[in-house]
Amino acid sequence: MGVTRRGPLPGDGDPAYDVVVVGAGVVGAAIARALARHPLRVALVDAADDVGDGTSKANTAILHTGFDAVPGTLEARLVREGHRLLDAYARQTGIPVEPLGALLVAWDEQQRAALPRLAQKAERNGHRTTRLLSAPELALREPHLGAGALAALEVPGESVICPWTTTLAYATQAVRSGVDLHLSCRVEEVRPGDPYHRLVTRRGVLGARHLVNACGLHADGFDALLGRADFTVTPRRGQLVVFDKFARDLVRHILLPVPGPLGKGVLVSPTVYGNVMLGPTAEDLDDKTATGTTAEGLAGLREQGGRILPALLDEEVTAVYAGLRAATGQEDYRIAAHPALRYVTVGGIRSTGLTASLAIADHVLGLLADCGLDPGPERPLAPVRMPNLGESFPRPYRDAGLIARNAEFGAIVCHCERVTRGEIRAAFTSTIPPAGPDGLRRRTRARGGRCQGHFCGAELRALSEEYGEGTR
Amino acid sequence: MTRTVDVLVVGAGPAGLAAAAGLAAAGAGRVEVLERETDAGGVPRHCVRPGFGSDALGRPLDGPAYARRAVRAASRAGATVRTGVSATGWAAPLTLDVTAPTGLERIRARAVVLATGARERPRSARLVPGSRPAGVLTTGELQRTVARFGARAGLAGRRAVVVGGDPVARHAVRTLREAGAVVAAVVCERPGTATALGVGGAFATPVPVLSGTVVTELTGRGRLTGVAVRAGDGRTAVLRCDTVVFTGDWIPDHELVRLLGVPLAPGTRGPVTDGDFRTAEPGVFAVGNLLHGGEPARRAAAEGRAVVGAVLARLAGRPWPAGGVPVATEGPLRWVTPGLLGPAPVPGTSEAVSLPPPVPAPPVPLLVRPERRLVRPVLTVRQGDVLLGRERLAATLVPWRSVRLGPWWTDGVDGAGGPVVVAAEE
Ligand SMILES: Cc1cc2nc3c(=O)[nH]c(=O)nc-3n(C[C@H](O)[C@H](O)[C@H](O)COP(=O)(O)OP(=O)(O)OC[C@H]3O[C@@H](n4cnc5c(N)ncnc54)[C@H](O)[C@@H]3O)c2cc1C
Ligand SMILES: Cc1cc2nc3c(=O)[nH]c(=O)nc-3n(C[C@H](O)[C@H](O)[C@H](O)COP(=O)(O)OP(=O)(O)OC[C@H]3O[C@@H](n4cnc5c(N)ncnc54)[C@H](O)[C@@H]3O)c2cc1C
């Protein structure tokens, strides 16, 4: 069956699934992938028409070490484990990741005084390789920093990663290993039952013996469908500015702010695509759909970015966007098993879910067992190798052998990001093809560069019509 | 694996093609033009309407006809025009890495002419806040889409807003209408007297022109639903639409220039060149909209023709002048090209040489772009205390058109002196 995006759901509740994971963000996709190791009937469903279309597509794309987590929390443990697991997985499957290391830069005495405490906290979280850098050392490491940087704490291991490929890799591997992926399939009602819960969607009913809530911002709303009211999700918006690739040479590490009484500050970080990212803001909102940017937000970011890296503001802006963190008023995740309901809630995955995803998945498998799921024996997953979107790794347009075998990999369509016709076609014939231009961009980078479609938009539209059936 | 040619031209738009035609006709040897698109001709290929001068019989030329003529002229003169070939970076001085369906190549040239054109800044580069819906594009994408798919209804939405007050905004309005969209308004930041549209946009079916107005937000998820605007007097409104076209606001497509590391002119963001289109990198020239953003095709082509002499001199082993006097603007002027008035080259080595002062810089024309509308301004060109030229212009200058100052304005520039400043006063 594989991937469905429209039409009635197969079977209309029968045959039922052993496990249905609701929410195909990075967390839900990781859980589905972990379940796919076992001989279970598993479905992954999402309201959106693509995987990773919620918070998972709009974050700062850092693979955290967890050095600054609250020691002793579940989040601290899962981030630390997740970092190790995803780092290895990324290398194995071709998800671009670059271990640039982070520098927490102190701009005033108070911040400088905080650095040794942060080093101690890192130690309590199991990270013993941090190091304090003096102002001259810092200037050598980051010659373009603005005036007034006093010192820094170096955190090796902090990395940048491609968030889009990560979610897509999990979901692809899950589908190839037998998981059904139902998209454009919002679960609107849950009728708890034994042995099967019935999940009502616009496309029909799904039967589920066990249920996982990986609904991100809507985890509280989904809990309510099962009569639970354990927490409320408050969206905390983070606006981000992505600068042109010409800015990439201005910065070598992930430049993190030192958290202080005046807020968390913003980071400046390279991206795996070769851009430089500035942000995020932190704004508590009520509206879970408020993923827009604001004039004040962008102006504030530019002001802060200009102090950190003055030359940044001379470069063009390639993209601006915003993501919503799922804050719950608790400095930890809200992951809970409800054995009586054969139900696991994976909520409050705030600002570290990308990093922790694989560890969360393993943890949830354990909780499902507590809910009575017998996963059966383990078997190997179908292998995946993802197309590389990273600038530091070989891209098709520079691959003579590939072009010799298939001339379409020598035909550049998106000139800013150097995406070839071959890559566009491959995306449309992949396990989970894109449903539109945004999905195509997340799979190939096409239209994601400095011209934003000025040169390539028309041609991409034509290719999408040619290759893609489900494409608008 | 490195192939050598005499001249490599990057970009087969009006500028690159004119340069190639001139060079091939002048016997420059092997002249090769690289064009990354599947057809040569540059931006005019997508401008399906008159506005590109006329042919030998005086009949008006549309963009595609103009483009075909330019490609033909270059080929007939003996230049090789290759399409579907992207120059992706520099492997070594004067050596470009190239990707094409036929494979990778490394091409070394004795001279390189960059003619990669310009683009309109997209919404994100203009920092327009709001959501990120579909239906947000530039005139370039709009024109290409209509040229690619034909003017079928719904291609560019049903109701559109156009942002910008340059002549290109009129093209956007026309193209949208051809594609069956209603143009709800043209929104431009400049005050009423300073847009290229006039009352009602000077169309048979008028379009509301909201001048002195800025776009404050885009709304809608999935598809655009509206454009929020704020007028000069602080009043706000939301214009309902499913398409918004951002026009003008050019930025040179200067990737190869940046990769080379040569200086950019702050006003244009194009490479600084001297009056003969030499960049700071010996052997590398730049012409066309790469230098200054949106100018008419004939200007780009004229620059292509004008570079020929200096390229031939380079091929003949004449030295690459170094130093030169920077040119800057003052007052309500946005930019000036060239950014450098070079000393006349002297015979000798073929790499950059610094010349002993004082040397008179050869007089060259200047291209100046006003920042706003200037009624009969007084223009001055000075170098330090020396007034080189001063004149009250008879015309009114507008911010969407450049003025050319003839070479006499720069006659007498001291090649070893301080910066030359072009200023305007009303
Ligand atoms: C600004 C910002 C910066 C961040 N930076 C980082 C970082 O650098 N590193 C890091 O590790 N993490 C970071 N994060 C956190 C990370 O992005 C999130 O923790 C992670 O994406 C959460 O994934 P998720 O799968 O839980 O949620 P989501 O990606 O939101 O997925 C939830 C999915 O559930 C679906 N859904 C909801 N309700 C239903 C329903 N009823 N039926 C069907 N489907 C439904 C939604 O459509 C959605 O696709 C950041 C977050 C933000 C906002
Ligand atoms: C909407 C619109 C309407 C216009 N209307 C008119 C009009 O009515 N009359 C008029 O006279 N002018 C008009 N113009 C302006 C005219 O099109 C330009 O002046 C002219 O095209 C500039 O020529 P150029 O050669 O500098 O650049 P371009 O025409 O932009 O050509 C540059 C070429 O370089 C290629 N290129 C870029 N980088 C690379 C690379 N790395 N490798 C290989 N190839 C590369 C590009 O694909 C392109 O074909 C209009 C422009 C626009 C956008």
Q: How far apart, in Å, are the first and last alpha carbons of chain B? A: 59 Å
When the domains of chain B are counted, the total is 3
Indicate the percent of residues in helices of chain A.
Answer: 25-40%
What is the overall pLDDT average of chain B? 93
Distance between the termini of chain A: 23 Å
Total beta strand runs of chain A: 23
Poorly predicted runs of 5 or more residues of chain B: none
Q: Given the C-alpha coordinates, what overall shape of chain A results?
A: globular
Q: What is the second-level CATH architecture of the largest domain in chain A?
A: 3-Layer(bba) Sandwich
Mean pLDDT of chain A: 96
Identify the quaternary structure here: heterodimer
Residue ranges of chain A: pLDDT <50 for 5 or more in a row? none
* Bound chemical compounds: flavin-adenine dinucleotide
Report the radius of gyration of chain A as a whole number of Å: 22 Å
- The number of helical elements of chain B comes to 8
- Total helix count of chain A? 12
- The gross shape of chain B turns out to be globular
Organism (chain B): Streptomyces viridochromogenes
Protein name (chain B): Oxidoreductase
Keywords (chain B): Oxidoreductase
GO molecular function (chain B): oxidoreductase activity
Structure description:
The complex is a heterodimer of chains A (472) and B (426). Chain A has 472 residues and is an alpha/beta fold. Chain A has three domains: 3-57 and 163-232 and 330-370, FAD/NAD(P)-binding domain, CATH 3.50.50; 102-156 and 234-327, D-Amino Acid Oxidase, subunit A, domain 2 (D-Amino Acid Oxidase, Chain A, domain 2); 396-467. Chain A has twelve helices and 23 strands. Chain A has helices at 26-35, 74-93, 109-124, 135-141, 163-176, 219-225, 295-308, 353-370, 400-405, 421-428, 437-444, 457-467, and strands at residues 3-4, 17-22, 42-45, 62-63, 97-98, 102-106, 131-134, 151-155, 159-161, 180-182, 187-191, 197-201, 204-213, 234-243, 254-257, 267-270, 276-279, 283-284, 317-327, 334-338, 343-347, 412-414, 419-420. In chain A, strands 1, 2, 3, 10, 11, 12, 13, 20 and 21 form a nine-stranded mixed β-sheet that branches. In chain A, helix 1 crosses helix 8 (353-370). Chain B is α/β, with parallel strands linked by helices and 426 residues long. Chain B folds into three domains: 1-120 and 250-316, FAD/NAD(P)-binding domain; 122-246, FAD/NAD(P)-binding domain (3-Layer(bba) Sandwich), CATH 3.50.50.60; 323-426, no CATH class. Helix content of chain B is 18%, strand content 35%. Chain B has helices at 14-25, 63-77, 139-149, 167-178, 255-260, 289-292, 297-306, 308-315; strands spanning 2-10, 31-35, 50-54, 60-62, 80-83, 86-92, 95-100, 103-114, 118-120, 136-138, 159-163, 182-188, 209-211, 213-219, 226-231, 236-240, 243-246, 250-252, 284-286, 320-321, 325-330, 333-337, 340-341, 352-353, 366-370, 374-375, 378-383, 386-392, 396-397, 403-405, 420-425. In chain B, the strands form nine sheets. In chain B, strands 1, 2, 5, 6, 7, 8 and 19 form a seven-stranded mixed β-sheet that branches. Chain B has a five-stranded parallel β-sheet with strand order 10-17-11-12-13. In chain B, helix 1 (14-25) packs across helix 8 (308-315) and helix 3 (139-149) runs parallel beside helix 4. The N and C termini of chain B lie far apart (59 Å). Classes of the chains: A alpha/beta (472), B alpha/beta (426). Chains A and B meet through helix 7, strand 19, helix 9 and helix 12 of A and strand 7, helix 3 and strand 14 of B.
